[in-house]
Design brief:
60s Ribosomal Protein L30, Chain: A, 2 helices, four-stranded mixed sheet, two-stranded antiparallel ribbon, alpha+beta
């Protein structure tokens, strides 16, 4: 798979905030991952009311789903991040978690949305991704 990040030098920088302006790819297999939350295998919310701990579980879950589909974070072309009661100070927690998820590769396109609630009242964050592989 060929994945290229689009970050025009004529625009504001985004990589340090955990996303690229756009991502392009040419690949026949597209993986649409459902939004992942901080549940473990036993439906226990990992981290309770700790956003950092929930982020760690969310991205662990995403890596597991991607691996099961034959992909890695480097194959992600789109991310959507939903945060309950979002405020800019939460980026100090979410940004590094997104960076750790991607590791050495540049982040894909991402939209972060503040929401009033998610499917269960215990969930603080939900992340969905789209990935493409050859």
């Amino acid at each position: 798979m060929s994945r290229d990040e689009v970050n025009p030098e004529s625009m504001y920088g985004t990589v340090e905030y955990g996303f690229s302006h756009a991502t392009t790819s040419t690949s026949p297999k597209t993986i649409h991952c459902s939004g992942q939350v901080a549940w473990d295998k036993d439906y226990t919310v990992v981290g309770g009311h700790d956003l950092a701990a929930q982020c760690a579980q969310v991205f662990k879950n995403l890596k597991e789903v991607l691996a099961a589909a034959g992909a890695t974070p480097a194959d992600v072309v789109r991310m959507r991040t939903y945060v309950v009661n979002y405020s800019p100070d939460k980026l100090e927690i979410i940004g590094p978690a997104i960076g750790a998820f991607y590791g050495d590769c540049l982040p894909a396109a991402n939209t972060l949305l503040g929401v009033a609630a998610l499917a269960m009242p215990e969930f603080l964050i939900e992340v969905e991704v789209t990935a493409m592989v050859d």
